[in-house]
Amino acid sequence: MARAAAPASGAPATSSRRPVSLAAAIRSPTGASAGLLMAARRSEVTLLANVALALEYEATCQLAEHRLAAGLDLDDVGIFIDSTGGILARRLGGSASRC
User: Fold this and answer.
1) pTM check: above 0.70
2) Is residue 98 assigned to a domain?
3) What's the number of domains the chain is made of?
C-alpha cells in the first residue's frame, strides 16, 4: 500500500505509517484513505509509491467489485487514477499519465 510520509510542515511523523488504499478511497469518499489523498493534493502529506504499486492499484480499482461499489465506470476510474498519479508526479517534479 502507498504510505503517507510526514507532513510538509515538519510536524511529527505520527501519521507516516498509515496505508492509503485507493480502492478504499473510491469506495468511501469520506473515509480515512480519501482524506489522506485530499491532504496529499493540498501538499500536506507526501504519498510514496513505485511503478509496480501504481499498476496494482490501477488494476484493483478497475475491478467490478470496487467500481460498482463506488458507482463508477471505467472512464471514471481512469480519471481517478490519472489524478492520483498527478499528485505523485507533482511531488517528484515530473508528470504521470496512463498508457
Assistant:
1) no
2) no
3) 1
